[in-house]
Write a structure and sequence with these properties.
The protein is of the alpha/beta class. It has a domain of 138 residues: Ribosomal protein L4/L1 (Ribosomal Protein L4, Chain: A), CATH 3.40.1370. Helices cover 38% and strands 10% of the residues. The chain is built from 8 helices and 6 strands, in the order E-E-H-H-E-H-E-H-E-H-E-H-H-H. A 6-stranded mixed beta sheet has the order 2-1-3-6-4-5. Strand 4, helix 4 and strand 5 form a beta-alpha-beta unit. Helix 1 packs across helix 2. It is elongated. The termini are far apart.
């Protein structure tokens, strides 16, 4: 289990915080990270670069000079690739550079990046300061108290507009909700600061309660089912019929 440094909202250092095993399991797959980062950078390309071939350039329909007798190289058009103003040989053509990576590979790469930062003590857990309004000075003071060096990635618990706007003018600080960061974002940062409340929600607390409810429901249904089974197996008691008045009269006559 990895442990990370913990800082309070006022910048004071607290007890080391244990990172959840559901994300920080210690597995670092460099091949998956390399594949995902390459795909991420490739997907950033617009693919709009274009140039004209010699067939698309206007003009050049006439042969510039006769084939023989001039002492110069033969030329068929002034729009050939070797002429200034001519077409381009093998020009770039607009197309999509998008690369698709399987979801499991992306998940593995993200966890590997976080594990790599945690393994080198580059993950910090902190209680982010509560800001009523965006304040870059307040964010700078908070990060200064943490004594972080280099680029910093701040992962908040959900969307936090005040924290985002406070760090927007800092060129070496990025803010985004926890779980939306890419592998490139994690590897770009020298230190990853995660809000403590974002990690407290991990561990499947809500999922662990569901089986308990089902068990309780089964236990509650068990006595009812047993009682119903017992009633079904019990034979109905046969009550002795009382003699009618006619029968008693016949017996007396006899």
């Amino acid at each position: 289990m990895f442990k990370a440094r913990y800082y309070k909202a006022d910048g004071k250092k607290g007890k080391a915080h244990a990172l959840p095993d559901s994300v920080f399991d210690g597995i670092v797959n460099e091949a998956a990270m390399h594949q995902v980062v390459k795909a991420y950078l490739s997907n950033q390309r617009q693919g709009t670069a274009a140039a004209k071939t010699r067939s698309e350039v206007r003009g050049g329909s006439r042969k510039p000079w006769r084939q023989k007798g001039t002492g110069r190289a033969r030329q068929g058009t002034i729009r050939a690739v070797q002429w200034e103003g001519g077409g381009i040989a093998f020009p770039p053509i607009p197309h999509s550079w998008r690369v698709r990576v399987p979801k499991k590979v992306r998940t593995l790469a993200r966890r590997s990046a976080l594990n790599d930062r945690a393994e080198h003590d580059r993950v910090v857990v902190a209680d982010l300061p509560a800001m009523e309004a965006p304040k870059t000075r307040g964010m700078t003071g908070f990060l200064g108290a943490l004594e972080l060096q280099g680029k910093t990635l701040i992962l908040t618990h959900g969307k936090n507009d005040n924290i985002y706007l406070s760090a927007r003018n800092l060129d070496q600080v990025e803010v985004m909700p926890f779980g939306t960061e890419s592998v490139y974002d994690v590897l770009w940062a020298n230190t990853v600061v995660i809000e403590r409340s974002a990690l407290d929600g991990l561990g499947g607390g809500a999922e662990e309660k569901k089986p308990a409810k089902k068990k309780a429901a089964k236990k509650a249904k068990a006595p009812v089912a047993e009682a119903a089974a017992e009633e079904a197996t019990e034979e109905p008691a046969v009550e002795a019929a009382e003699p009618s008045d006619d029968e008693t009269e016949e017996k007396s006559d006899a």
